Amino acid sequence: MTNNVPEILKLFKEQLNNQIGTIVKEHSFDTQGYGFAYWYLRNVGGMTDIQAKDQICDGGGDLGIDAIEIIDEQVVFYQFKNPVSAEKSLEAGEIDKLISGLELILSRNHNRNANQELLSRLEEIYSFTPTGYKIVVAVSSLAEMPSDAVSKLNSFCQRNSGVAKDLFRWEFQNLEDVHNRFYSAHLPTLEATLDLSLNRVPYMTKVGDHETYIFDLSGEYLARLYDEHGESILQQNVRMFEGDKGTNLAIAQTACNVEESKDFFHFNNGVSVICDTAIFHPFNNRLSLERPQVVNGGQTMRILHRCFRKSELQSDVHVVVRVITTGKDKQFASNVAVNLNNQTRVDNTFLRSNDPRIVQLLHSLTTLGYFLERRAGEIDAMLPDELKELENRFGSPLAKHIISLKDGMQAYVATYYHDPQLV
Fold it and tell me: Is 2 among the domain residues?
């Protein structure tokens, strides 16, 4: 690799090659390409071991198609390329092979040429009427899609979509895209399904691919949620606790005031939550949220929790809650988090806290025995049990292991430019 490749992507490519090599050895896969397909489906696609293996049809007779995934009746055809070098270009002939294979499949003339894994995946597709098709070409280098390949893919999609606009779509992901998707998928989150007990049926609407639920919860209910889950439910909330001052002090005063608490619902902006999926159960008025994260309103939850622990929180405090489903679209989730917090002033370092490069730095420093405080004040906001867990992990008082985001970024830049004076 040469200096044309950013250092952060050099490191990611090196780590990726090492992980793929380990995967190929542990699972006895035939090729590194098969290993890359498995790694991608597990780490970017969020699949289990069995799910990933079931999707892959790479090998002789794959017709240029390395994996097939079915998502909500949409069929996704994958082609994976894993060159050793991050600067390796993508051959247009690989796309020609992919298009030819898809043409055979659409005309059902593939039986003599397709391998058994591909045939099995296609039988599943033929059993229903897909709502759409997507072609994903993922390459672990900084290659660009050849211009003639772009034209051919556009022509193929337009020709086969017919009157149904965008029935066929395609997407290209190079090393930088894969890097961003990987670290977006590995943002700290609550790895659980949260069941909310509602007092009434929520308002629900769907715009595009995403659902929104709007309802109210009592202040005590939200305080108990924070008491149970702590900062783990606020990991993607870019604001940290800013103390009992200004707006926060006003929130606390309203929540604890006998005369004003009934109007808390009208005075407060509420809490916004993102989750992979949400399911409403009408028989018992419960809303199940998969992997939820509060992305706006974290200050409100922390203040309500403080009031609750002091036994000063009034029972008639209610808060408007908005839940937005992301469908596991990490870029959409990131955009929601940033835009909801851009409407009022937030320090730029907070907004960068969920950036894939910052998350990569967090993971890298953890392996070296350090905790990157992605959001200023993150340690101060943690509950005692959370602090104890970190100290047990590092084996000594946490203060010795904390690196602030600004210090971490400065050290990274100084290392990158080989200039210690930048720190």
Answer: no
